[in-house]
Design a protein that fits this description.
disordered N terminus, mainly alpha, two-stranded antiparallel sheet
């Protein structure tokens, strides 16, 4: 499945991608003043709460994986990059995102203890930070490296297999995909091992280190994803894409998914709406916002996955 035998090198595209990741990791997550950060926040909300009006702060954030009412307080050290990763996973692996939240709610109710539960978004941010440490653009508690240290890093041969995979399947998605594999693996192992939240950082380190081991011998991100899917059916379920990754297709699916949740529309009605919208004059069509939903029908009040769109 695509064996890579050559010695890793920093190609120009990979160097540029590492610089982009470093800049995003350095950039603070400030949705109140940064339109891009706000779009990411809204996109994640619409994936997991499509029928609820967006709220910048409020108790619903704690129901979808954050520890408090304001998601900004959870992000902090992860910077903008951590939210980019979380939004990518929820957009491309929407079924997996919703299934994780369902699993965690059920686990919390069954165990009756917060110690058997982990906040999805917060743990995702921890995994993002650990991946940055692994690549070398940050150093644990010391945080992000300086720009001078970054340039020094890029003058040396990359030590890690994951570094050279960053641009293999196109720019700006490699790191987020690696993050997605680690997050899905983390969730499956957390449930399987019956560990506590206090033990979760050690598990996060383990899955990130295993990601590097598994990356060796793969030429593309997709071949690595398939390897993870072959490794465990539970991981495969979380990493199954619904198709239609283009933004316009995700937008259309998201709009009609929200309509189905709110109004209980039939599938035939959805098809009719799609056809009707396609015939509308461009000036009469709704503005295309940053909605990027894929995947499954989610009934929040029932905590069940109903069907795949």
């Amino acid at each position: 499945m695509g064996i890579c035998d050559s010695r890793p090198e920093w190609t120009d595209p990979v160097q540029n991608e590492v610089r982009r990741l470093w800049a995003s990791r350095t950039r603070a997550f400030e949705p109140d003043t940064d339109p891009h950060a706000m779009r990411l926040l809204r996109s994640y909300w619409r994936v997991v709460l499509p029928a609820s009006p967006f709220q910048r702060t409020g108790p619903q954030w704690s129901s979808i994986g954050f520890q408090g009412k304001d998601p900004v307080t959870d992000v902090r050290a992860g910077g903008l990059l951590s939210v980019m990763c979380l939004e990518h996973f929820s957009s491309f692996y929407t079924f997996g995102t919703r299934q994780m939240l369902i699993d965690l709610r059920r686990l919390e109710r069954q165990e009756g203890s917060a110690e058997k539960f982990y906040p999805l978004s917060t743990s995702a941010i921890v995994i993002c930070v650990m991946l940055c440490d692994l690549i070398g653009i940050s150093k644990g508690m010391r945080g992000v490296i300086s720009e001078e240290q970054l340039e020094q890093l890029l003058t040396k041969s990359p030590r890690l297999a994951i570094s050279v995979l960053l641009t293999k399947d196109g720019p700006h998605v490699g790191f987020q995909e690696l993050f997605s594999f680690a997050l899905a693996h983390f969730h499956v192992e957390f449930l399987r091992r019956d560990i506590t939240y206090m033990e979760s950082p050690e598990l996060a380190r383990e899955v990130v280190q295993e990601l590097e081991v598994r990356a060796k011998g793969h030429k593309t991100i997709n071949s690595l994803r398939l390897a993870y899917c072959d490794m465990d059916p539970a991981i495969e379920r979380l990493l199954t894409r619904a198709g239609g990754e283009a933004c316009g297709w995700r937008l259309a699916r998201g709009i009609h998914h929200a309509n189905r949740v709110r109004k209980g529309c039939s599938l035939q009605g959805i098809i009719f709406d799609l056809h009707r919208d396609a015939q509308r004059p461009s000036e009469a069509k709704p503005a295309q916002t940053d909605v990027r939903w894929i995947g499954t029908e989610y009934a929040a009040e029932e905590d069940v996955v109903v069907s795949r769109l």
